Amino acid sequence: MSDPFFQPVSGFDLPRFAGIPTFMRLPHVPLGDARLHEVQIGLIGVPWDSGTTNRPGPRHGPRQLRDLSTMIRAQNGITGVRPFELANCADLGDVPPNPADIMDSIARITAFYRQVLAQGILPLTAGGDHLSTLPILRAVAQKAPVGMIHFDSHTDLFDGYFGGTKYTHGTPFRRAVEEGLLDPKRVCMIGIRGTTYDNEDRDFADSVGIRVIPIDEFHTRGVSDVMAEARAIAGDGDTYISYDIDFVDPAFAPGTGTPEIGGPNSYQALEVVRHLSGVRIVGADVVEVSPPFDPSGNTAFLGASIMFELLCVIAPAL
Questions:
Q1: pTM (2 decimals)?
Q2: What are the extents of the domains in the chain?
Q3: pLDDT at 51
């Protein structure tokens, strides 16, 4: 049983529409707090979308995700896991970005996560656009490259946009491979689909050994079979999980900047995470939730539910 301080506030004690929202109604333990060293899993917001190239909005994602996560309860209804009793979890607050300077924001994010990791805390992040993952990986993979299981409708492996701009939400994993943050032979990308500019990203994936599982293969083989391969690719080494909400079909998750039709439904969105059990997870994120495109909050609730499923896989392994 974890410390009672780290238990979420119950809806039986305070209505879910009341109080200051934190991720899953957990205590807020900012960097520098006296109890930071007791935290095992830190939930962190990265309210930043300067890597977006079309429809902005994910900078507002962490705030809406916190609000909708007040609906999360203590126990997983399918697996029975009670993550808050297995690990001390807390909301560590937001990384303060610089919305006027991409490179400064990247440096700020990396510095924040290095402080988190120095305390032995495993980070679970709410983005933000997908460029947010690159500076996180710079902290997580500071000592050695990691594997990655990546749920998305896009590979995010392009080299550059608009004549060579290297840092957008379509390039983070190209940079991560080049910088030695990812071991490409331990990277599996699941759900890739949609129209394309060309084959540049897929050619790069093939050249370095990244396994790409397109959406048609995902639907044909099914969740269990695909995830068994993903676990095998990750192996027993340190692995990062990156989950773009546009992995899910926009019928279930319209609140995102670059939706692609033909994706998984909301049940499959949760199911794939349950199949991560046994993976040595050293960090995870849920990115690209864009509240302006779904004021109902349903996309954010799905994102918060995915974060809870990740907690239910991570906490038992600590």
A1: 0.97
A2: 28-317
A3: 95
